[in-house]
Amino acid sequence: MQLIADSGSSKTDWRFIKDDNTIEQLKTSGINPYLITEKELLESLGTDFKNISLQHIKDINFYGAGCGQQKNKEKIKKVFKEFFDCDQISVEDDMLAAARASCGKEAGIVCILGTGANACHYDGEEIIERMISLGYALGDEGSGNYIGKLTLKAFLEKDMPSSLAEKFSASFPEINLENALEQIYQKPYPNRFFAQFFQFAFLHQKEKFFFELISNAFQLFLEKSVLKFKQYENLPIHFVGGVAFHANSIMRMVLTKNNLTAGNFMESPIAGLTLYHKNQHS
To answer: CA–CA separation, 262 vs 222, rounded Å?
Structure first.
């Protein structure tokens, strides 16, 4: 049995490819080696797979945010080997997952816009250029946590139009300055805390305030990533992740404004990855 996983900072999609080619699926919390210790990961896996049979797993292919660095790959491999008792473990970053899922064997620019943000230039076989990704504290322009952060900031600083601020208060009655600062600076996963507010921005994207906020965030993302790649003007721009997928009308408008060609928009790469690895073993 093969185990395929695609993980962002918020959630992980798992696919079990059985020997008879049937497929089962599971969704669990996100696994980012920058944001979780080995002990926390082991405990998280124990909870997530509590009622799942792990026998006969021969091959694990894990793709995740934060897995571009070798030390992070080894961190995931170490915990997985202990938990799953499997020797065939491959750990790659989410960028390669997005490229394989959206481009196949064709060249293209591949962007991830979910909780976080990333982008690369893919030649059909491997990644040849990458954007400089600084994470939620210094970067992630255009991502869910970035747009969510701007949304929260506008509310707390009273820069949000009053009609929208009232709706925000109704949607998040627990949010005030004291509570927000505690969540950001004293509790784990502030990126997930920020990202929850993207949905509010998305639901009100036709309002001038949020249309401009999201448009400007997407433009900044392109300037920090796509527009720095070689030959970007000659390649389709693909997007993977819930933010670009759900707000694709705004992204398409921003791409047109920059004379760029829109490619595929996928909420998740897991279906494409499953097909890729299924074919690899056929």
So the answer is: 13
Domain boundaries defined on the chain: 2-96+270-280
Q: b or e along 216-250 (b: 16 or more beta carbons within 10 Å of the residue's beta carbon)?
A: ebbbbbbebbbeebeebeebbbbbbbbbbbbbbeb
| Higher pLDDT pick, 70 / 138 | 70
| Structure token digits, residue 131 | 């954007």
Coarse DSSP helix, strand, coil percentages of the chain, rounded to the nearest 5 percent: 50, 20, 30
Pairing of strands 59-64, 2-7: parallel
| pLDDT on residue 4 | 94
Task: Provide DSSP, 8-40.
Answer: -SSEEEEEEE-TTS-EEEEEEE---TTT--HHH
Q: How confident is the model at residue 96 (pLDDT cuts 50, 70, 90)?
A: very high
Whole-number mean pLDDT of the chain? 90
Three-state DSSP at 122 gives strand
Say if residues 280 and 274 touch (Cβ distance below 8 Å).
no
Q: Is the pTM of this model over 0.85?
A: no
CA distances from 44 to 73, 96, 170, 231 (A): 18, 25, 33, 42
Query: Looking at per-residue confidence, does 198 or 139 come out higher?
Result: 198
Burial class (CB in 10 A: 0-12, 13-18, 19+), 53: exposed
In the CATH scheme, what is the code of domain 2-96+270-280? 3.30.420.40
Query: Which of the two residues, 179 and 74, has the higher pLDDT score?
Result: 74
